Amino acid sequence: MKKLIMLFFYSSAIIAMEDIPQSAMKMIYVDSQETVGENGAAINVLDGNPDTFWHTEWYAKSPGYPHEIVFQLDRDYLIENFSYMPRKNSSNGRMKEYQVFVSNDSNNWGNPIIQGRWPDQTAEQIKDFPVPVSGRYVRLKALSEVNGNAWASAAEISLNDKFDPLTDIDGWASSLHLEYKDKSGKAADLLMVDIMVDSTSPSTYYAAINFTGGYSGLQDQGSKRTLHFSLWDYVDGDNQTVPEEAKAKVLWRGYRVSNSSFGGEGTGVKTWKDYAWKTHQPYRLLLKMTPMSVNSFAGSTRDFWVFDFEADEWMHIATLWRANNPTTGRAETNLGDVYTFVEDWAATSEWYRSCYLFNARKKYWNGMWHTYDQAYYTINDQENNPSTPDRHDPNTQAEVRETNKIWLATGGRFIPQNRALSGSTISFASNLDFNPQAPKFAQIAAEPVDDSTMLVTWEYQEALWAAQESYTVQIYEDAEMQKLVFSSGSLYPHDYEKSAKEKDSDRKAQITGLALAKDKIYYLRLEAKTVFGFTCSNSEAVAIKNYSSTGVSQKSSLQPKRMELEASYPNPFNGTAT
């Protein structure tokens, strides 16, 4: 095997080459492997043992050439060469003609980086690439065998990546910023973006939506990972005088969400949820603004949701409130545009971090949506901002991948390719599909507290386009739900609470101001409105037996009745504004 570190001259600079650990390589595809006649599993090429090997099938059948094996790395590397070690004890399956491909995804391979013939010998074969190639997926395609047989085999496969050991990596990694551009300048009440962290490091904030008055996103704190949502007071800077009743407030927190005040960049409130978000998994972030007065101060709320695609679940993190500035008297009616940054907050420039951002949109107050296709890119480092001399300059990269994703990388020992310049505009495609889905309720129940109060509990089942924003409770005298006796109006998160089940999808609300008759059955209906603007009218009806004639409360055995009503939802993405 090769040594861990080798030095060579490249483009008149001393460059180091380092093994990519086999633990960072994952075999994700092989066309054939023999696991019956012998232990010829493909995973053997990554076990560090030259005495074990991968062998294509021969016991029951012998599929012919070409043969191939594909690896996924734990992040993007600047790959310098490819190493193939044949099996020791036989020439069976020893490859002759070969091709090696490198890609940023597992579908688009392009032309081979290297190709040729391996010599007919047992020694490890190392083939340098013409130039270092950045990528995360590597594919070996074997075209023939030295003896003309149908088999392929390999004892070990490994890769090298290149880094510059002379680069000063003290201080902070450069922070990268994307300001999405909407030429119309129209005010937005909802912002949305998808993020997928590719490679993470401690002390990194992936602030996917930085909006007027605050920011939200994913954090890697080293010991844990979190979902963060913060909002400033209406005045900038520390040590400001803000009336207590006008300070930014947490009106509602989601399941297991914590909060505190903050300072250092102004004052305000922050919320966070300990959540083990995963690399290579996408998450959708939503931010919604709603005008609302609190303590006689005019202002507006910000609601933050996160959708976990793998878990198929929305998480409503919090509802925060911010007062309008009473000095100017100007009402805040605009979240601005989606603004994203990737930041190292603890001087860990030696660590590499990268992420993908895609499907950025904003909704205007008139209900129309704008799809972003451009973003203004800036780098906060010594070169572009002299006030940050301790930023690490060279190792940053921004580029479009898969036509619609912006890939950002900063810090660590990687050599940027096609580095976008600070101050440049990045253009990309948008291919976001829209498939509205009505939310459904897994259960709904109600219990009279007295003749004027009722406790309603419910659990909903959400889908990708069904993030719940508000609910309406209606009470009827008849099972056909024609005789309405009460309607709650819109109930927002700060109007109801988590139920005793303590699940994020479970809620309860205490409805007051009723005038319920005794010895009478009532029927309850619950409607949900999604954050995307459509109201779903499929719901449950629950029979509620009220107080007996003796005035003693009777807790009924409630039998939910499914109401198969027509779901009604307009498509807010039709007629997208530009």
DSSP strand tally: 40
The rounded Rg comes to: 30 Å
Helix/sheet category: mainly beta
Indicate the overall shape: globular
**DSSP summary: helix tally:** 0
Percent in strands: over 45%
Helix residue percentage: under 10%
Measure the end-to-end span.
58 Å
Broad CATH class of the domain at 5-163: Mainly Beta
Describe, in plain words, how this protein is organized in 3D.
The chain has strands at 5-10, 13-20, 25-30, 54-55, 67-85, 97-103, 114-117, 125-142, 153-154, 156-163, 172-173, 175-180, 188-199, 204-211, 214-220, 225-232, 249-253, 257-262, 268-274, 283-291, 299-308, 313-323, 339-344, 353-364, 369-371, 374-380, 391-392, 396-401, 405-410, 424-427, 440-450, 453-461, 468-476, 484-487, 497-498, 506-511, 521-530, 535-536, 539-545, 560-563. With 578 residues, the chain is mainly beta. Among the domains are: 5-163, Galactose-binding domain-like (Jelly Rolls, Sandwich); 440-563, Immunoglobulins (Immunoglobulin-like, Sandwich). The strands form 7 sheets. A 9-stranded antiparallel beta sheet has the order 18-19-16-15-14-23-12-26-30, with no helix packed on it. Strands 13, 17, 20, 21, 22, 24, 25, 28 and 29 form a 9-stranded antiparallel beta sheet that branches. It is globular and about 90 Å long. 40% of the residues are buried.
